Amino acid sequence: MSVLGKITTLLGVGGERSAPPLRYEGITDGLVLTDTDVWAWWTCETSNSDLLGEDERDAEQARAETALTSVLAGMDVHLRVLWSPYSADDYRAEAAEMYRAGNWEEWAEDRAARLDQIALPIRHVLLGVRLGGRQRPAGRRITEAAAVSPSGVPTRELATWHAAARRLGRRLESSPWRCSAATVELLAWMVTREQHRGVPAPVDGRSLVTGAALAALTRGRALPYPDHLRMVDAAGDVAAWVAVLPMVSFPERMLSPGPGEWLRILAEVSYLPPDDEDQGDMVGRLAPVSPEASVRLRVLPKRQAIARTDETAKLVREQTRSASTHAIGDPGQVITDAGEAMAELRADLEREHLSLVEDHPRLVVTSTVSLEDLRARVDAVSAHYADLGITVQVGVDEQRALWLETWPGDRVRVPDLGHVRDTAAMAGAWWWGGARVGADHGPVIGYLTGSTPGVVRLPPLADGRDATTVAYIGRSGKGKTTAGMMMALEAAHAGAWVLALDFKGDLGGLTAAADRYGLPSRLVQMSRAHAGAADLIPLLAEAGRDAARAEVPAQLSLVTPAHLRAAGAEVALQAATNAVISSSPNPATWQVVQHLRDSTDPVAVATGEALYELSQTPHGALFMGRPEPGAVPPLNTQPGVWVVQLPGLSLPGPGEERERWTSVQALSVAVMHSILAYGVTTAGRPDLRTLAKVIMVPEVHVLTGTVQGRHFLDYIARVGRALGVRFGLDTQDATGLLLLPGVIEQLAMVIGFQLTSAPQQDALAELLGLPVSRETRERIRSLADGDGDETRHGHSITRDQRFGAATVQWDVPTAELLDLLDTSPRAAEDTDAEAAHDGVRV
Prior knowledge:
The chain is an alpha+beta fold. Helices cover 41% and strands 18% of the residues. The protein is built from 31 helices and 27 strands. A hairpin with a 2-residue loop joins strand 2 and strand 3. The longest helix has 23 residues, at 302-324. The chain is elongated and about 120 Å long.
């Protein structure tokens, strides 16, 4: 500030700098009314710019430039980028709406406590536009001068401004910013947060905030100092230290992506808190600064922009002529370059959809710890932007004016700290860019790891309005199975029936975790101890006995020796099944085998003896063995978690003739036939249409090698929406999944973890909707890269139901739960030992 400016400011005649603060007169949905002006406010939706391909980025940025020049030209605009902590208390309050089974209160509290621990900041991007000045009747001005003016906003005036905001809002809705009107609660929070008084905004149940309630929002006190402000709370103590930093210079050219995205990269600024500076090993203790942005701008209509360019070009020509008439002769490279730049800019303004914008960018840095902490944060912000060629510095002796300038509804108070640039450069700041994925409601499953921090919510249950299949794809040990188990537990707490087909044998921890949180569960293993656990007759009994009349003979035929089938064994199998189902009060497959053995038909007897011997094997016992007396039925259709472990299946290869199957292969196919028939029948039962259902299939490539498996996958994927089934597929083979068009068409979400081969990476990129390129391959390859040599488990690229994709860290809220869900060989040994001791989990 000049000496004259300091003197006039001291005397109270310093122009805009020393003007009194604005006075708010009303806040309602989408509108802020001051004593002089009316501003409309919208929230901008975050775009997934982190993972956009080059062509998509260019197209979206071009649309943003068009919106600036066609929608906002000639208007006063105020951009605010704000941060707030994610409220774990809000999550606790929502829990009763999301969960109802098991010890859901403890489940929700563990997640909420984890959210408190990681304290994720949430970004809010708000766009304000001045609609116009308020007209005051002479009588109103007289009463105001006499200090007897009634409070409030006339209804007719409010309706007029709402109509103007809606007209402009319709145009902004279709812009890349996808604007929606800001709620009165959000606007009240935006106003009151500047006071740092720790008092909630008194707007509950209000659609219009005026009078005393509005005055309560701005009763804070700020003490200005040369390089910062001190915010005083209601008790008179310093609650926060705030510094406003103008962005005083930018490089002549900035790349986007890169330094040109100077508004998007706010979340990337970090610092080392002063208390940690003497502890060494800085990695891991860097904390986010979370600087906020306040940018006032005005897009010049094209005619004004061309006129401004002509004025500058005229000045350049005058300087050139002046230099040529003096001894210097040469006007200098700077003036020459300026003349060429003005000529190019004027041509662009006439030829392209381009204009100029006057903007006044400010960064606001806040500390609630100490002044020393504030200065460390300020230094980090200045250094971060200096690396990009952008000069950011504290507005010394300007803090009061700069701080008031950030208030919604105020004006530019320090006009000399501004810039004029083309709209392409302003759009390249990508204030709406970053990362966004997931749903607006539902369980929090992790957090974003892109340029925009925040929580990620994914629905665990099927949505009857959309596809329902979810694919978890990635290398072994990178977190895909754990992610699937967490979603299964979320679904079970929401009251779903969950069936997990465990072909690898590492899902025992799923039932252990279900037991821990009070959910009904069973763990069925392929052993003689669980004889009859996959018996189709009792499994299908609730669907009606006729369902088993066709399925059981077909299953037993799979394991009947070929010479007996040729002799007519299939007729004997059907007859025995019909007889047992019709006559026995509690029919079972082992009774069918015994009926064959007791027959007088030699073929039936030989078939029965062959099946009896096969029922003594672990594979055969599971679906046609005789259970122990009094054994609890291991599977049912009650809400809970039901895990069937089938490790060691030896399935025939695709196209392998049935006559060439070994007995182990035939038994493996029959076991799988039981479980798949149970899953398909249960999913399709009319009486269970209202029951939320989840079927989880790890190692899905085990199924794709058989006719029954491919039919099962295709059927459940296609009818999942109609039947209310969430279908979770877990595989290491992205290329194999692409060969299942019926499944691919029904994918609602894709969760991609690390893959290392180019064909697999390209297939995953296609499933995620990302460009198939070298950059995408490297991004997928590096998903599991942690600090140093560490592996980062649970880090993924997630594509949601809206086809948005972002990098996500899946989060398990407690160390105890993480140990329970451990899928390592050590955990599998512990589970096997416990199962051998306890039998079936109840």
